[in-house]
Amino acid sequence: MLHYVDIRLLPDPEFPEHLLMGALFTKLHRLLVEVQACTIGVSFPGYRETPPTLGNTLRLLGPEPDLTRLMENPWLKGMRDHTEVKPIAPIPANAAHRPLRRIQVKSSPDRLRRRQMRRHGLTEQQALDRIPNDKGARVRIPFVTLSSTSTGQRFPLFLELGPPISATEKWSFNTYGLSNSTPVPWF
């Protein structure tokens, strides 16, 4: 049976909710990389597309022993004053299942031009002719801002919630707790 843990962000007058969620999610991602966990998924019960928000709760989903090991790890150090961690509980049997996946948006014309110049040996003007400034994609879906451990750069991780679908037997997630093939219980 699958279980879950809710980690709720507490209101803080000094830090906006989205900043705290970014810090919390970055810490989780680093831990999932470190322990090479592929059985832990995430969801955001407060996910809304209008206005785009992930809400104030990060829900971890997975087998109870894996969640227990994860929560015994001191990964929340530095976040304890900003979070409330609920006890591990079983997922309701009647929970719907929905895909939650990363959407990669080609939003920066400058970055796309630099890539064209590097890959195809184009001049700056040729790249500008191919990719004008108005070619940047704009999306209005929730995202979390992460910091890359390898490059140090900050980037948005856009998340798209799909419609309810059938649950799958296979339970496999990447180091962001996301999957293109495994829907997560949504309740």
Terminal CA distance reads 16 Å
Oligomerization state of this entry?
single chain
Number of strands: 12
Which stretches are poorly predicted, pLDDT < 50 over at least 5 residues?
none
- Biggest sheet statistics: 5 strands, antiparallel
Under CATH, the topology of the domain at 2-97 and 164-186 is which? Alpha-Beta Plaits
Helix-residue proportion: 25-40%
InterPro entries: CRISPR-assoc_prot_Csy4, CRISPR-Cas6/Csy4_sf
Organism: Thiorhodococcus fuscus
Protein name: Type I-F CRISPR-associated endoribonuclease Cas6/Csy4
Features:
12 strands; 187 residues; five-stranded antiparallel beta sheet; Alpha-Beta Plaits; CRISPR-assoc_prot_Csy4; alpha+beta; 4 helices; CRISPR-Cas6/Csy4_sf; Type I-F CRISPR-associated endoribonuclease Cas6/Csy4; three-stranded antiparallel beta sheet
What's this, in brief?
This is Type I-F CRISPR-associated endoribonuclease Cas6/Csy4. The protein is of the alpha+beta class. Helices cover 25% and strands 27% of the residues.
Question: What does this protein structure show overall?
Answer:
With 187 residues, this protein is α+β, with helices and mostly antiparallel strands. It has a domain at 2-97 and 164-186: CRISPR-associated endoribonuclease Cas6/Csy4 (Alpha-Beta Plaits, 2-Layer Sandwich). The protein is 25% helix and 27% strand. It is built from four helices and twelve strands; from the N terminus they run E-H-E-E-E-E-H-E-E-E-E-H-H-E-E-E. It has helices at 17-35, 64-72, 109-120, 124-130; strands at residues 2-9, 41-43, 48-49, 52-53, 57-63, 83-85, 89-90, 96-98, 100-103, 143-147, 154-161, 184-186. The strands form four sheets. Strands 1, 2, 5, 6 and 7 form a five-stranded antiparallel sheet that branches. The chain is globular, with a radius of gyration of 19 Å. The mean pLDDT is 90.
